[in-house]
Amino acid sequence: MSEENLTVLRKIIHIDMDAFYASVEQRDFPEYRGKPLVVGGKPDSRGVVATASYEARQYGIRSAMSCSKAYQLCPTAIFVYPRFDAYSSVSKSIREIFSRYTDVIEPLSLDEAYLDVTEDKLGMGSAIDIAQSIKDAIRNELNLTASAGVSINKFVAKIASDMNKPDGLTFIGPSKIKSFMEKLPVEKFFGVGKVTAARMKAMQIITGADLKKLTEQQLIAQFGKTGKFYYKVVRGIDERPVRQNRETKSVGAEDTLSEDTNEDSVMHSLLQQISTTVANRLEKHQLKGKTITLKIKFEDFKQITRSRSFLNPINKAGEIYTEATRLLNEADIGLKKVRLLGITLSRFYDDVVADKPENNQLEFDF
């Protein structure tokens, strides 16, 4: 690679906090330290695991698992409800640490973000040194640990951050990307979920090297537009920039029923609560949405969605509830019992509710 080409390579860091919610709980409550801890709800509830401490993960407990299943795996685990206000406060402190080094920050959630440090504020130059300095600051100031991945693009940096958890720092430089991508299992690729991974494996596509054998046209034919991304990224090409002030594409909420039911009154009551939550979030961000989507998850964990779009956007709880119940009725679920309901509003960029132009910028919790 020529010196000229090297000058245009970006320096990207992906920071991912280690078992974030559980680590905050163990930091704040000494009696939880060194013990299997599950954040998500009580073991006899219908909640799901938001995150689990590394001690709990040794028993096979994972995020999105039901709390009842987690209890079966580890009856001695401590189960606690999430404290999102606490996590949000810590997250803002983490963001402040990031901002010492760069303003080009793309938060993905409360506990992870991309940073472009191609030009860093402190003139440190080395992305590896910056990543280590950030990790040290998080440890010393917040008494928490983070893992970092460093590379020339977002995809590789994100994969790298997961390679040596917890408290890891992994650098994958330009000369290593080709071999790294070829060895990478297909389920680690962006956009490859369980169904797509199974489909790929049925086609004898097990690793990046297998994926690389297909032409761009073949990948698009098999996987649609995402196939074009697979073609590039398996060759180490990811041109996505780190985006400051990511635009919110949707606002929503969901909740699990206390027990599976097909009773209209019970489901309508839950939809009313969810509608109020969504309306409050829309109000917070000064948004109205033109599309509403209802998510219905059944007792067998299968799920469907139903959507409707409007000419005039909505953001009031009553409007949201009316449309959500209409979608539920139209779904015609019959005798199927429902486990979870969710509501999402989207398509609102042109309909920011603001009295003044300067109010149009969104505020994001990180």
TrEMBL record:
Its main location: cytoplasm. Poorly processive, error-prone DNA polymerase involved in untargeted mutagenesis. Copies undamaged DNA at stalled replication forks, which arise in vivo from mismatched or misaligned primer ends. These misaligned primers can be extended by PolIV. Exhibits no 3'-5' exonuclease (proofreading) activity. May be involved in translesional synthesis, in conjunction with the beta clamp from PolIII. Its EC number is 2.7.7.7. Keywords: Cytoplasm, DNA damage, DNA repair, DNA replication, DNA-binding, DNA-directed DNA polymerase, Magnesium, Metal-binding, Mutator protein, Nucleotidyltransferase, Transferase. Monomer. This is DNA polymerase IV. Its cofactor is Mg(2+). Transmembrane segments: none annotated. The active site is at residue 112. It comes from Pedobacter rhodius. Belongs to the DNA polymerase type-Y family. It catalyses: DNA(n) + a 2'-deoxyribonucleoside 5'-triphosphate = DNA(n+1) + diphosphate. It is an enzyme of class 2 (transferase). Mg(2+) binds at residues 16, 111. The keyword Iron does not apply. Binds 2 magnesium ions per subunit. One of its GO terms (molecular function) is DNA-directed DNA polymerase activity. It comes from the Bacteria. It is found in: Cytoplasm. The record marks 21 as: Substrate discrimination. Residues 12-193 form the UmuC domain.
